User: What shape does this take?
Amino acid sequence: MDLYRKVRLACAEGMSQREAARHFNVSRDSVSKMMAFSVPPGYRRTAPVKRPKLDAFTGIIDGWLEGDREVHRKQRHTAKRVFERLRDEHGFSGGYTIVKDYMRERVRRGREMFVPLAHSPGHAQADFGEAVVIIGGVEQKAHFFVMDLPHSDACFVRAYPAATAEAWVDGHVHAFAFFGKLPASVLYDNDRCLVAKILPDGTRQRATLFSGFLSHYLFRDRYGRPGKGNDKGNAEGLVGYSRRNFMVPIPRFATWDAFNGYLEDQCLKRQADVLRGQSETIGERLARDLAAMSDLPAAPFDACDQTAGRVSSQALVRYKTNDYSVPVAYGHRDVWIRGYVDEVVIGCGGEIIARHPRCYDREDMVFDPIHYLPLIERKINAFDQAAPLAEWDLPPEFATLRRLMEARMIKAGRREYVQVLRLLETFDIDDLHAAVKKALQLGTVGFDAVKHLVLCHVEKRPPKLDLDVYPYLPRANVGTTSAASYMSLLSGDAA
Assistant: This one.
């Protein structure tokens, strides 16, 4: 633009166009055009681009690219592959560049156009995204649920170890609690956790858990076209926004709950923002969304997967490829299983018999050592090789207690030590630990002593270790010495 001005100024001051062309090193045609327009008119192509070497082959290229619509996107023609096929199969003598330029222009012309949408209050969109996080010092993938209210752009984000059906439902439950209201409708993609099957007429056959969830909250579920993520563009945009703004740098938290608390704070903080093209904050527009929503049910939905199982001979119940332990007394019995996002609950009849943190690995075993102690007490020789006890991290005083018991009674002492461990069926580890330390301090190494001490600790009363009450203490019968015995020492018999 600076050259353009200098040429026009020089000519206006008397320099001829021929001299200006020579002086500024431009063509005389360019000088003529500069003098004809006060500002550069811009380049405008008036005729289509001619590609003499390629024009005869464009029909072939178009046919290949149309056929690509029916195959997997990773097996479609690239510009390089098109060039190679034209050269090898059709005798094309042109260069790679004109093929690449033609394909780029064709893709540009074929891009989808969109209609700007207006969103009425009270509706929502939901989706899942992925990001890398560090939880408890371990780098792992987080699957985060997002819910966006398109009218106000208010959002909710919650992270999970996996994007399971339970996570989908749990995300909704927390989102509804966050907003305090129930949307009139929620727009989804066709995720397999939500939609089990799309019927020929386009209707959706909903997954079992999601169907029960919809029946509880009674809002309208809507779905985008398969493979068309732009149908729920607000939720797709929120996934990217959350990853860029809430998860850069990589989040580091001790627990998932701490991470989700942080995400919720960010969602609240965002409600003070004023977005481009708006005059109100997100929070001010959220008020209209909430006014158009309905009240929540009296109780939230129990977001869990429910199934049945049977206890194996090793007191294990399989759920989602992983095995979870139950008390050995329930061996070979039928049980029910509830899988939550963070917990697996196992019950028999109307009784809960086991609770475990949920494992998202595959083909793993999750043990509670206490479940196996009654069996180990009977089969005491299996004590040292019992897999459920292998990684049981007990305080060091327990190992000391076992060593003393085994030194005094050998095999019987080992069994009595297991009886001490079985007190964990009733008492907390902290209470039993205090009792074991007290027993070691007093030198009362025995099950009855530890049981008495843990009861005293819980009831906050001093221990009373009475020989007549506690037979675990060693007894000695001391007889009374008669005078005749002393006289025998003076007799010759004593020599």
